[in-house]
Amino acid sequence: MPGLHFLPSTQPFESPNPVLLASMLYTSAARGSEEVAPLTPDYFRVVCCAIAHLSIPDVPGLEAGPNDDPEAWAFQTVLGIVLAGLLCEALTRATGVWISVGYRLILEHSPSRMDEASQDWKKLFSGLQVFHSQMMAGPG
User: Fold this and answer.
1) Within 13 Å of residue 8, how many CA atoms lie on the same side as its CB?
2) Distance in angstroms between the alpha carbons of the first and the last residue of the chain
3) 1-38 tens-digit pLDDT
4) What ranges in the chain are assigned the alpha helix state H?
5) Angstrom distance (rounded) from CA 64 to CA 135
6) pTM: predicted TM-score of the whole model, two decimal places
7) Phi, psi of 61 (to 5 degrees)
8) Closest CA to 18 of 42, 61, 53, 60
9) Of 117, 114, 90, nearest to 11 (Cα)?
10) Is the CB of residue 47 less than 8 Å from the CB of residue 28?
11) Would you say 127 and 82 are in contact if contact means Cβ atoms under 8 Å apart?
């Protein structure tokens, strides 16, 4: 995933969760060829819906939580939020909510142990901070 300077190691995501997948599709369409560019608004709506599902707990039919590995699910979700947020350059009113969801997931799911994986969480947190400061600076 290019452009994520805060997370330079390439991580394979064999089965990305809905937020990360939607963000990857949105990024691909927005930065892709003229063939896929018309899909950008549709993928953006999918990203917004996927993130909204995180904010509305306990709604029947919305599987917005972790399946097997809550830590991996949260990591992918925050990464998807940061990826989509940095791409839209915080021009969307909802990005403040996105940032709040990202911080909440980091607080709830980041590992308490200090090992190599926790370094990726620190980098992800840095990415969320970049997104937050970009939003606070506004367009321009």
Assistant:
1) 1
2) 25
3) 444 544 555 555 667 888 888 998 998 898 889 999 99
4) 18-30, 40-55, 70-87, 95-109, 116-137
5) 25
6) 0.77
7) 90, -10
8) 53
9) 117
10) no
11) yes
